[in-house]
Amino acid sequence: MSHPTTTEELPVGSVLEVTVETVAHGGHCVARHEGRVLFVRHTLPGERVRARVTGEGPGGRFLRADAVEVLEPAAGRVEPPCPYAGPARCGGCDWQHADLATQRELKRAVVLEQFDRLAGIDLPAALGRDVVVEPVPGDEAGLRWRTRVEFAVDGTGRPGLRGHRSHEVIPVEDCMIARDAVVGTGVLRRRFPGQRAVDVIAPSGGEPVLVPVPGGTERAPLVLERVPTPTGTGEFEFGVAARGFWQVHPGAPETFLRTVLGWLDPRPGERALDLYAGVGLFAAALADAVGDSGRVHAVEGDRLAVEHARDNLTPWAGVRVTRDRVDRAVRRMARAGERADLVVLDPPRSGAGKAVVRDVARLGPRAVAYVACDPAALARDVGYARDAGLDLVDLRVFDAFPMTHHMECIALLVPAG
Length: 417
Ligand SMILES: C[S@@+](CC[C@H](N)C(=O)[O-])C[C@H]1O[C@@H](n2cnc3c(N)ncnc32)[C@H](O)[C@@H]1O
What we know:
- The strands form 4 sheets. Strands 6-19-20-18-17-14-15-16 form an 8-stranded mixed sheet, with helices on both faces. Strands 1-2-3-5-4 form a 5-stranded mixed beta barrel. A 5-stranded antiparallel sheet has the order 9-8-7-10-11, with no helix packed on it.
- The protein is α/β, with parallel strands linked by helices.
- Mean pLDDT is 95; it is low at 1-6.
- The chain has 9 helices and 20 strands.
- The protein has helices at 100-119, 123-127, 180-183, 252-264, 281-290, 303-312, 326-335, 354-362, 375-387, and strands at residues 15-24, 28-33, 36-41, 48-56, 63-72, 133-135, 148-153, 159-162, 169-171, 197-201, 209-213, 222-228, 235-241, 271-275, 295-300, 319-323, 342-345, 367-372, 390-399, 408-415.
- Pfam families: TRAM, tRNA_U5-meth_tr.
């Protein structure tokens, strides 16, 4: 939530003329005014803008602001394709005002900065090459990609999207990052009195599904997701609860699977771990590759996801799905002296953390693939991994959330030396 600023000289609503410096993690850029740091949205590095103060950060360490007038635009600035983007409007996207090349350059800068600051790693030096933020194959425009959208419902039952750091519902007639199938459900012309939100899911298999909230995850229907196998010889099928976790970019599961399996190169007979397994995306591909003589152990904490993972993974006899917290499960494995050849880590935004990374290293894997939606948590954990004897040797960054500040990083860690 936005904190009303207590700064007497710079109350909320003050408008300041500032020169914008670098991008910062979170969809905003740094500027300074008389010694105070401002995080300014709707701007780009190098711009001269008039910024309106919207609040302050924890402990008053910085001010938040929106660029309300651009005096000197940066080269990458464009007219936002979405009519709802802009200060005090829809808070869903952060970079509608930048062209895609600029958005990716901003994401690259954020990744480099996080690794430098949180792990002391100079990425180009560590990787022996520059970091490039890659589009998800086939996504040229960065629009019409989102297969899952939660529309908030206002007091009159109209669906819309929330403002940035705000409960305010901004009614919309379209969302330009949503799949045609999401907005084509008629959801934005209907009313949902008494609901808090309505989720629209456009799965790769079957028709789009509308799930009013509240309504409970339990009663949400199961949707079918199809993902080409990494070898391209067939398709995996995954049942997933309509409100359960699944990547929101339609090209992401296939791209991430190819990247992870390409790096890990699982061999018949190997033992693999899929930690934070969801409904079993990586476990299925690992099981296929290690074959009947191999073993895959998937660990997931969510009860419904575990049920679906067990169903989805029944074709493979060598797969075990455990419902547990990953930290507890890997601590138990490490204490029991268990070994794993390969590990996939795909934690939530908060990352895996020091204990999990340390216990994973104790299992003696020859390779670990870490799939991360927050580069800050990844950088911190890569630092812990290095302390535990696992070195970063490769990193790919995918623009799996164009127009927003989000991205997906996939890192390859191997035993040092
Ligand atoms: C980013 S999702 C990844 C899911 C899956 N790998 C995929 O690609 O579809 C993270 C998953 O971790 C699970 N999770 C979060 N914290 C956990 C924990 N401490 N222990 C076990 N599972 C956890 C969530 O329920 C979610 O399914």
